[in-house]
Amino acid sequence: MGVSDRQNPADITLYAETDGSVTVDTGARYVPVSEGDLERILDRVAADGGAIHLYGGSGRADDGDDPAYREADPAMNAAGWVLAMAAERGLQVIRGE
User: Fold this and answer.
1) Burial class, 3, CB count within 10 angstroms (exposed 0-12 / middle 13-18 / buried 19+)
2) Which of 14, 24, 63, 92 could bridge 51 with an S-S bond, Cβ 3.0-4.6 Å?
3) Helix (H, G, I), strand (E, B), or coil: what is residue 93?
4) pLDDT value, residue 10
5) Most distant pair of Cα atoms in the chain: their distance
6) Do 54 and 83 touch, CB atoms closer than 8 A?
7) pLDDT recorded at residue 7
8) DSSP per residue over 17-67, as a string?
9) Percent of the chain clearing pLDDT 70 (strictly above)
10) Measured between alpha carbons, how far is 39 from 33 in angstroms, rounded to an integer?
11) Is 12 left (phi over 0), alpha (psi -120 to 50) or beta?
12) Residues 78 and 56 sit within 8 Å (Cβ to Cβ)
């Protein structure tokens, strides 16, 4: 889902990258954002009544045979960080594949 595909113009699309960074969809490409910038972006989305479309950081299925890996997975940590900040602001998060 890109910027032009959103139904609500206040919605935003984020991607939790495999290296642990978070990028935002600008319409033409995904651009990395810093912690401070992401906080300001989420504050604005919350003020405008938007939602977050979050991709990446889903990890792989855990069948119980492997040791816990999610704690060391940078993408999972990035997604968790975005989810926590969204919860603080009361934002709806729509997870994508």
Assistant:
1) middle
2) 92
3) strand
4) 82
5) 44
6) yes
7) 61
8) -TTS-EEEE-SSSEEEE-HHHHHHHHHHHHHTT-EEEEEE-------SSSP
9) 77
10) 10
11) beta
12) yes
Tokens (6 digits) for 74: 């940078």
CA 32 centroid distance within chain: 12
pTM above 0.90, yes or no: no
Q: Is the pLDDT of residue 82 over 70?
A: yes
Element (H, E) at 13: strand 12-16
Q: How many CA atoms lie within 13 A of 87 on its CB side?
A: 6
Cα 87 to Cα 80: distance, rounded to the nearest angstrom: 10
Structure tokens at 6: 């959103």
The first and second tokens of residue 22, run together, are: 């978070």
Distance CA 37, CA 95 (A): 21
Q: What is the pLDDT of residue 74?
A: 86
